[in-house]
Amino acid sequence: MSELLSSTHPFLSSLAGHLERFRGKRLRPVLVHLSAKAFGGEAPLAAEVAAVIEMIHLATLCHDDVLDDAQTRRNVPTVNAQWGNRAAIITGDFLFSRALERLGRFEDPRPYRIISRAARLVCEGELLQIGARFNAGLTEEDYHELITKKTAVLFGAATQLGALLAGATDDEGRRMEAFGRGLGVAFQVVDDCMDLTGVEASAGKSLGSDFRNGELTLPVIHLLTSARPGLREELLREFRPGQANFERETLQRHLQSCGSIDYALDVARRELNRASESLETLPPSAARNALQNFPEYILARTR
Amino acid sequence: MSELLSSTHPFLSSLAGHLERFRGKRLRPVLVHLSAKAFGGEAPLAAEVAAVIEMIHLATLCHDDVLDDAQTRRNVPTVNAQWGNRAAIITGDFLFSRALERLGRFEDPRPYRIISRAARLVCEGELLQIGARFNAGLTEEDYHELITKKTAVLFGAATQLGALLAGATDDEGRRMEAFGRGLGVAFQVVDDCMDLTGVEASAGKSLGSDFRNGELTLPVIHLLTSARPGLREELLREFRPGQANFERETLQRHLQSCGSIDYALDVARRELNRASESLETLPPSAARNALQNFPEYILARTR
Questions:
Q1: Which residues contact A101 (CB under 8 A, 6 or more apart)?
Q2: What percent of chain A has pLDDT over 70?
Q3: What is the ipTM of this complex?
Q4: Does B2-300 carry CATH code 1.10.600.10?
Q5: CA-nearest residue of chain A to B94?
Q6: Is the predicted pLDDT of residue A63 greater than 70, yes or no?
Q7: Where are the domains of chain B?
Q8: Which is nearest to B297 in space by CA: B169, B155, B177, B94?
Q9: Gap from B229 CA to chain A (nearest CA, Å)
Q10: How far is A126 from chain B (nearest CA, A)?
Q11: If pLDDT is split at 50, 70 and 90, which confidence band does B261 have?
């Protein structure tokens, strides 16, 4: 990633240096590497594809931070906090275009095709989310489509490409895609649960904002469909733009009494179980073991 | 473009319909078509490449409108005015990724290689511009690099790809790229002059904002280097963040007395003359004639 972002221009190179400080969990690059290893070793292109996928993820974070007016990310000032919104938006665009430009230099067209499609679906998922704001009629199926696009396809692209670059067949690639996609769906469901029940200090970000922002997530969709009529009316009165009086604790109590968090985590577990089945045909290896531990890792955040 | 943006989701399809209302001059698609025709007829891919280049241009406009808080564009409400900043930023991202995704479906890797590189350079140019804000030491060479990246490379990609897709050799493609790039540099110089001397009503946007925003353009660079010391000091005092008292008329008077607009337009004319030389080896055709009229068209805005 450093190499792809290096520049002789002082401003560009200080931006690039800053971006590297947002060192998160790097789940997507790890998935590329492990998926490549599970199919017989490190593919020469895997490192670059891993960097490119992380850059696309980072691009979406730059834009999110502008939109959320976030001041820090992982204890580092956001690009918008440091250089303003204009710089942050263009930095996102730059990361995105630099990533896709790099993929275009490969002889193999698959990385470019798979990742540019995934990137478009991520945007589509985000637009669907905007279009669904304060729509109390959002169904579980709508939500599933939305998070699949917004989050899971990029996980799926990571696992699929890791495998393909290491010589997996198209069929094996599709199975690995299903694995990554399942991880991504579960990851997002867990993330959405944490927004409702998590502890701010350990999350490192402010919580409870989804409902306030008009974004229905799985536990709340469950709550709205299973709540008694009076409670449902009460919740719908709160689910309107500008309801700053909303208290996260009240919502938590209702979610608790309707079993909505447990319901959502069960959905996540089922996704992860189905995802794990995709690994069954892999030959035994340390990489396979590490991939098999991913579901546990994703659920660990809930405890 | 309609086809590439079509969707079964009501929100996505209303966004797409809205985007089509920003019907501007469409210079870049026209350049793709004419360049293809100048090399022996309409290439089957040219229409899609033209749409893709326009989508990338439109993506940058969506982001610009958020950053400038613009309410209308060509008498149509901007995406940010209609659906908010979040929608506008993601719409830009969506246009961009959809465009690059489409290019990845071609067997021919040249369109996505050339366009993804151009898109990255556009972002780099915009970042250089941000890094250079309120830098009174910006030279004419810096400015040339900046506008080449920000504006001219996409014009160059349009003319180069039009030619290549119609069967031009690599050498011919490079000559057509130089033609488009020269047009783009001249276009931006003229645009920057219009910001200083144009009439708001006919421009359809507010003017005089470059200097206020800390962006030095060619006429002002010339003015700063050729002004007598007292005037230079006065200008530098105004060239600082938050100088809302700045009057465009005062600057106009100084530009007039130093011949700075004439100087900049001479630079534009020289670029256009050099660009036209690239067309000399083309066989006679209606398309060649139309391309040869482009310089006149670009300069017509100044009269």
A1: B113, B116, B117, B119, B120
A2: 96
A3: 0.91
A4: yes
A5: A123
A6: yes
A7: 2-300
A8: B155
A9: 30
A10: 7
A11: very high
